[in-house]
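Below is a filled-in request sheet from our internal design queue. Each sheet records the structural input a requester submitted and the sequence that came back. We keep these sheets so that new team members can see what a complete request looks like end to end.

REQUESTER: design group, bay 2
PRIORITY: normal
MODE: inverse folding
CHAIN LENGTH: 553
BACKBONE (tokenized):
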């Protein structure tokens, strides 16, 4: 009542005060009732209804929203993150009621330095930035892609405990090449084709300058940029400030941790990773990011002259050095004629043929194309040279997965290790056996990478910091879990794993002398922390949703 008096609220509210716990229960009851009332309706209708009720809570009461999200992360992540966030982006202009985050468009050129001061919070620590050009596997969604930074930052709050007042989702609207959106009367973005070349880069440059003028130490995560700009911006900025590209680097770390897990699942020592035959389908930002990090790992294990057995395919089939106009980023993974002639393979060979002839240990999809691991491809994995062949269908959202787990276990056999990018239920194999479905999604790493980088006050995010994140995730699982085909922790443990990953990243920054400290904790203090103390320090810095007093006695 003191608060009500001080804030001039007496009479503007009903007399009884409802506690946080009661509000929580009331929301959860409303959510369960919505589940009952929408039973039997199409998945998309149910998912959007769930997203709406959560989004309304987000707008109304941030503290309660994040508490229900944290406590029910397994149920709610698929709504605020993949797969439903994809559907939300596709329908964003129709669903739009109020804005969230900031929108910088090509029309704002020359204005961004003053615009950044329109953001009402005084401090921003974490920014997720997209240009909407490659939203999950759904293509160019223009301004509607803002849903992705919002969803990623929700995961930052839930998993890394970043204070929601200090996050900023950003859309750089440079136009769209999506004709359907350009013709949609409700479309909320610029109605012009995407900027290209120097014009495009000048917009991104202006934005990053503006951000750093106001918040020099904010960590910037680039998300869902089409491959050419993903690589170009990473190259352009990574040495200049604290940024990373989640699709290239976050995904790579999660995939590498999973690949290490598959070696352990075969009962082999980790160094055997250098001998694994890995077929990667998709030569975009994600696929190339994974191969680059895998190559670095093989070089560490077997020396720089190691010759890894990686095979890379894109929409034109197997990539070889004979490929005309080859993407320079794919060149290190292109096969030379002599490497494949014994296998009877050739430039442009199709996926089924490659799998049949290579007999890979791992088949990993980051193509964005649903169903391309069809029956023939999956059956060919039965002839794999591994005792536990691994199938990673990592594309998002659900319909874009290269295969579903039911088909994978049915056609490739019950001994496989399986992972998908979006969540699927475990598969009942009969006889009391369960086919475990892992979620190989960068959500296991990006919150820890961002948090570790932030708390270290690192000048930039180095490969060593990213490797530390991947190794931390890989070693999180016990041998017993790995033997059961469980490669990643349950999402219920996301805060715990993020604290460990964050600490690993922070310690790597300190070891490389990149850490400048954060807040009251200077570089010297960070240097003197043991591993356990660092983890505790990271945990202590996580925000947790509770009501604070609004007026102090
Ligand atoms: N699970 C996770 O954590 C992550 C999943 N992804 C998913 O990966 C997918 C790809 O993302 P990006 O690499 O950024 O896209 P991208 O557009 O840069 O690359 C797609 C690649 O797939 C190839 N491709 C297209 N059709 C193909 C076909 N029929 N057969 C073989 N290859 C084909 C293209 O040639 C291109 O090389 C998306 O669906 C995205 O959601 C991306 C990042 C993280
Ligand atoms: C998970 C993610 O970052 C993607 O699908 O793009
Ligand atoms: Mg992404």
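RETURNED SEQUENCE:
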């Amino acid at each position: 009542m003191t608060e009500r008096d001080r804030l001039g609220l007496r009479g503007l509210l009903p007399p009884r005060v409802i506690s946080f716990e009661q509000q929580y229960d009331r929301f959860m009851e409303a959510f369960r009732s919505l589940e009952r009332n929408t039973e039997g309706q199409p998945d998309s209708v149910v998912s959007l209804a769930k997203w709406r009720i959560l989004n309304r809570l987000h707008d109304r009461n941030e503290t309660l929203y994040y508490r229900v999200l944290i406590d029910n992360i397994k149920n709610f992540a698929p709504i605020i993150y993949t797969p439903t966030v994809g559907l939300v982006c596709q329908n964003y202009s129709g669903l739009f009621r109020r804005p969230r985050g900031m929108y910088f468009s090509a029309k704002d050129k020359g204005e961004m330095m003053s615009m950044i001061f329109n953001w009402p919070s005084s401090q921003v620590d974490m920014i997720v930035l997209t240009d909407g050009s490659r939203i999950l596997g759904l293509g160019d969604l223009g301004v509607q892609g803002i849903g992705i930074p919002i969803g990623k930052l929700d995961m930052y709050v839930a998993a890394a405990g970043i204070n929601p007042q200090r996050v900023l989702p950003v859309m750089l609207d440079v136009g769209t090449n999506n004709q359907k959106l350009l013709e949609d009367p409700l479309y909320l973005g610029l109605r012009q084709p995407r900027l290209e070349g120097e014009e495009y880069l000048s917009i991104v440059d202006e934005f990053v300058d503006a951000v750093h003028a106001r918040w020099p130490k904010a960590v910037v995560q680039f998300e869902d940029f089409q491959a050419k700009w993903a690589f170009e911006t990473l190259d352009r900025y990574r040495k200049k400030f604290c940024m990373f590209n989640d699709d290239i680097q976050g995904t790579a770390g999660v995939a590498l941790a999973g690949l290490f897990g598959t070696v352990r699942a075969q009962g082999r020592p980790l160094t055997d990773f250098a001998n694994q035959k890995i077929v990667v389908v998709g030569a975009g930002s994600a696929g190339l990011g994974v191969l680059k990090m895998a190559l670095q790992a093989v070089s560490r294990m077997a020396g720089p002259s190691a010759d890894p057995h990686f095979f890379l395919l894109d929409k034109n089939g197997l990539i070889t050095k004979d490929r005309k106009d080859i993407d320079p980023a794919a060149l290190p993974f292109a096969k030379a004629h002599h490497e494949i002639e014994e296998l009877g393979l050739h430039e442009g060979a199709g996926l089924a043929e490659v799998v049949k002839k290579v007999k890979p240990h791992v088949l990993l999809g980051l193509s964005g194309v649903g169903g391309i691991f069809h029956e023939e491809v999956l059956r060919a994995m039965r002839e794999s040279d591994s005792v536990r062949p691994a199938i990673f269908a990592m594309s998002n959202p659900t319909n874009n997965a290269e295969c579903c787990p039911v088909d994978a276990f049915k056609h490739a056999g019950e001994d496989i290790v399986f992972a998908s990018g979006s969540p699927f239920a475990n598969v009942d194999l009969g006889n009391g056996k369960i086919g475990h479905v892992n979620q190989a999604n960068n959500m296991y790493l990006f919150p820890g990478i961002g948090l570790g980088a932030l708390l270290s006050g690192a000048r930039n995010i180095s490969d060593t910091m990213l490797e530390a994140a991947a190794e931390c995730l890989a070693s999180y699982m016990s041998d017993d879990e790995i033997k059961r085909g469980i490669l990643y922790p349950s999402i219920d443990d996301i805060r715990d794993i993020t604290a460990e990953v964050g600490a690993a990243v922070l310690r790597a920054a300190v070891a490389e002398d990149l850490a400048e400290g954060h807040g009251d904790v200077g570089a010297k203090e960070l240097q003197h922390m043991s591993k356990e103390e660092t983890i505790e320090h990271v945990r202590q810095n996580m925000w947790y949703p509770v009501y604070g007093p609004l007026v102090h006695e």
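SHEET NOTES:
- The radius of gyration is 24 Å.
- Residues 134, 136-137, 227, 247, 251, 254, 281-287, 313-315, 366-369, 372, 394-396, 400, 421, 440-442 surround NAI (ligand 1) (CB under 6 Å).
FILED BY: M.R.
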